[in-house]
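Exercise 7.
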Amino acid sequence: MIIYIFLDGIGFGENDPEKNPFAKYAKSFFLPLAGKELTTENPFHKGNYLVADASMGVTGLPQSATGQTALWTGFNAPQILGRHVSGYPSFTLKKIINEFSMLKILEQNGKKVSFLNCYSENYIEHLKNNPKHASASSLVQLASSTPFKTFQDLKENKGIYMDITHEVLNEYAEKFQLQDEELLRIRDPFEVGKLLTSIAGEYDLVLYEYFLTDKVGHAMDWNWAKKVIGTVERFLEGVISAIDPNKTQLILSSDHGNLEDLSTKVHTKNPVPVYLYGKHTEIFTPKIKALCDIVPAIYEIFGIDMSFDYEKISNK
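Solution. The predicted structure, written as tokens, is:
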């Protein structure tokens, strides 16, 4: 079983609390992003923190659309396009995702997969009718045969909301016409982390996306950064506390730097973390140097043989 968690917009920064909120607020998982070591008392010290190239050999600031395409298809998207693309995926990126979505390929090879983020029915319908408004992660899901998880799944503890704690869900309660007390109950991040690990036990691979880290970076908001860092660290502590490392592999990655430098509201050129803990860590560790290396390593674990030479494939 593989748990694949994506944290948008986090990179390795300096040990400078004047510009790096990880240097100021991190207590456990995020300490290495401020140049600090994980001590033996830290719940994450048994895992491997890899330094991954988010640029993938292409000049310019790494961006979300190309970075996430690489993370979830295994293709070097910036190299294919010759540039980094922000926001929604371009025509070529959509084509790559639609054909080579990690979830789709794993399904075709008999694996049971799930994207754990839950959405309102209105939002799901909007995505299906307006795919041009779909992010890379949504396109990865749409390419598979697995339906999006809904608020009903969220209520039944079969999925996770995007902010972990449901505080954002409360803010949108009126818009979503939500009155369900259980849905609106504020969650303990540690318990949600344990829940994610429990849900994952039903699948061969699960994917979860958290993007508020990137939003905080763009907003340059220190108070929000403190809250988000605390929430995510407790959440990840919950995840790792419930993992059996002899049966499960945790992979955590990002698409580009951002939150580690609040002196700027744009992305950074900093390398990003790939954190590994569990059954296949020793196998994964030497294979992952850049964002596009994660999916090929996953396929190898599952015995899936696939070419990542896009030029050769696209000219067939």
